[in-house]
Design a protein that fits this description.
α2 packs parallel to α3 and α8 packs antiparallel against α9. The protein is 66% helix and 10% strand. It is built from eleven helices and seven strands. It is rod-shaped. It has 271 residues and is α/β, with parallel strands linked by helices. The strands form two sheets. It has a five-stranded parallel sheet with strand order 2-1-3-6-7, with helices on both faces. Strands 4-5 form a two-stranded antiparallel ribbon. It folds into two domains: 127 residues, 3-Layer(aba) Sandwich (Rossmann fold); 116 residues, Methyltransferase, Methionine Synthase (B12-binding Domains), Chain A, domain 1, CATH 1.10.1240. A hairpin with a 2-residue loop joins β4 and β5.
Amino acid sequence: MHVLLIEDNEDDAFLIGEILAEVKGTTFDLECADRLSVGLERLAEGGIDVVLLDLGLPDSRGLETLSKGLDQAPEVPIVVLTGLADETLGVKAVQEGAQDYLVKGQVDGNLLVRSMRHAIERQRLLAELEQARQREQQERERLERELYSLEQLSAPPSTAVTAQMFGLAPLRESVPEVFDELVQSYGDLMDLALERRAYRVEHNISERLRSLAERVGFLKAGPRDVVEVHSNALKRKIRQVTPARTQAYVEEGRLMVLELMGYLVSYYRNR
C-alpha cells in the first residue's frame, strides 16, 4: 500500500511510520511531505493509494487544505488527521469529501490500517457508482436521440403516407382506440421477446408479429403507423426501468420493428 503522509510535525510523522512498521501481513511504502505544496506535487506524479493529511500545515490550514488535496487528485482517498481539540473539524472534513478522520494520539496500527483500507474501498465504490451513473446518462441520451429519430420518422409530412395511399389519416388520429390496442399488443410482444432472451423460452413471436402486421394492413396502415406503434410502445416500456432492461427493450425492439415492417410489405404484395 503506497501511503502519502502530509504532516509537518516530525514526531507525529515518525510515530505513524513506527505504527505502520509494526503492522503484520501488509507492506507499506510510506512517503512523507511536510508541506501541502510538496504533497500536491507528489500526488500529481501518481501511484499513491491513500493520503494521510494533517489539516494544520505551514502553507495551508483547515478545510482549505482538504479542498486542495481533493482538487489535485479526486480519485485518491484522503484520511484526515486531527488533534484532540479539532475532532469537530474532522467530522466536517468527512462531510466535505474526506473518507475518514483519525485523532492523533488515539491511533494504533489496527485502527490506522483499517481506516486506510476502508477509505480505499469506499473510494473505489464511489468511482464505480459514478462510472455507472455516467454510463446510464449516456445510455439515456442515446435512447432519447433514437426515440427522437423515430418520432421524426413517424411525424406526418404535409400529406401523410396513409393519406397519400388511401385518403386516410394516420391510425393514431383516425382510430385512436385501435391504435392504443396495437401499441399494447406490440408492447406485450416486446415483453415476450425479453423473456425469450433471458430464459430461452420460445413464444413464436414471429408468427404473432405476422398476425399483427395483417391487422395493421387491414386497417390500411403505412410505414409511419408501424414506426409510431413501435416508438409509443417503447416509451411505455422504458419508464422507470433499469438501464440494462432499457437497453434490452431497445435492442429487441429494433429487430421487431424491422420484422413487422417486412410482414406488412408482404401483406400488401399479396393483396
